[in-house]
Amino acid sequence: MRQLVEVKVKSKSVKKITSGYPLLSKETIETSGVTMEEGTILRLVDTNGSYIATAYYGLQNKGIGWILTRKEQEKIDKKFFVKKISEAVAKRDSFYETEDTTAFRVFNGEGDGIGGLTIDFFNDFYMVSWYSEGIYSFREDIYQALNEVVNVRGLYEKLRFNNNGQYLEQDDYVSGEKGDFPLIVLENGMKYAVDLNDGAMTGIFLDQRKVRKALRDHYSEGKSVLNTFSYTGAFSVAAVLGGSTGTTSVDLAKRSLPKTIEQFAVNGIDYEAQDIKVMNVFDYFRYAVRHNLKFDVVVLDPPSFARTKKMTFSTAKDYPKLLKAALQITSDDGIIIASTNNASFNMKKFKTFIDKAFTEANTHYQILEEHQLPEDFTVPHNFPEFNYLKVVFIKVMN
Ligand code: SAH
Question: Which phi-psi region, left, alpha or beta, contains residue 306 (left: φ > 0; alpha: ψ -120 to 50)?
């Protein structure tokens, strides 16, 4: 039987929760003397004992659980999950109907009312990501609910809850048809190879869809493009299809070479005409400066935090440095596409990093476009702090 525990919300946090904030943190509730298993249902009450909301207990780096409902009578059962998933699917009507895009997010955690759970769609295959043992304890009900709401061709899952929120290695196949990977999905007519059973990542980050489209449609024609932290080269594919004169993709991971070749190949692009470098981006910058290389467009999409033998890089601390290094090899009137998915700072803060870098480099600039999460990555109403993606297109004005 699932545990049900009544917990008091500290008076200073009551208002935030009643106003719709979905996340519970250790500081929000009085937990002294209560031991709870992950997946415990929490009946949240105010200091007078009056009902506020129902949550589940689940440990993530973001917090210790998520609000599920603010209706006292609502039970957390299969019916509840059917309702939530149906609402999410209905919101993605236009995505299901669009023929030139066959990969998108169906359920975006807290934005769709259940933090710690995401569901992605790839050519009728579904991939469910679980971010805590707490939410994973509802697995059976959630899978049944998903199968009731949509036609699942095949189901895969990612368990993202080992000690530090990392992926747990396993066979990710769950049920239905087994995928014949790579699966070729479409995104605004571009092809991307994905594999739902090859470690933590699938080959494509769906939240950058609009950025790839903008790069292809408005910034690539006749331009040389440097794609740093390129992973499988998804931005490079967009650039070539947009008419780039040549792309250079740089990533440290050895797997990035065959994966990038694959992405080019499925689009009919001659990969030998494109440059793919398996190396540290910072070493590449030094190499490019030494050889006087300049690019019309430079894409910067670093991980929030990276550590190599020689150095550590944190976007929260080092983004201005990264921009200054990129500036040295950007053409005089070139474009830098600066991206980060670090949730610990917002767009306003990110722009101060951009301003700092350009001021220190004595260079004028103009912001041409800004992007955050696309519509399928729903963000809770009134809480923009969950909109982690920040992408700025910057024109260098020399
Ligand atoms: N831009 C990619 C996603 C980047 S994910 C896309 O749109 O698909 C971050 C990538 O950065 C990973 O592939 C990782 O291998 C790479 N990486 C991390 N530190 C690096 C470094 N110092 N130099 C080069 N690549 C690095």
Answer: beta
Task: Provide Rg for the chain, Cα atoms.
Answer: 22
Residue 280 CA, closest ligand 1 atom number: 23
| Assigned token pair, 219 | 């910034």
- In this structure, are residues 246 and 222 in contact, taking their beta carbons and an 8 Å threshold? no
Q: Is 229 in the pocket of ligand 1 (CB under 6 A)?
A: yes
pLDDT tens for each residue of 176-209: 999 999 999 999 999 999 999 999 999 999 999 9
Domains and CATH numbers, the chain: 4-69 (2.30.130.10), 78-186 (3.30.750.80), 205-397 (3.40.50.150)
- Give me the mean pLDDT over the 265-293 stretch: 98
231 lines ligand 1 (CB under 6 A): yes
Which residue has its alpha carbon closest to ligand 1 atom 12? Answer: 231
166: confidence class by pLDDT, cuts 50, 70, 90: confident
Query: Phi/psi of residue 375, each to 5°?
Result: -55, -35
Average pLDDT over residues 26-42: 88
- 252, 300, 307, 388, best to mutate for ligand 1 pocket (most atoms within 8 Å of CB): 252
Measure 289 CA to ligand 1 centroid, in angstroms: 20
Q: How far is the CA of 284 from the centre of ligand 1 (A)?
A: 13
- The minimum-distance atom of ligand 1 relative to the CA of 229 is 11
Q: What is the mean pLDDT of the chain?
A: 96
Is residue 7 predicted with pLDDT exceeding 80?
yes
DSSP state of 389: -
Q: Comparing C-alpha atoms, which of 119, 110, 135 is closest to residue 381?
A: 110
Q: Is the CB of 251 under 6 A from ligand 1?
A: yes
Report residue 163's pLDDT band, with 50, 70 and 90 as the boundaries.
Answer: low
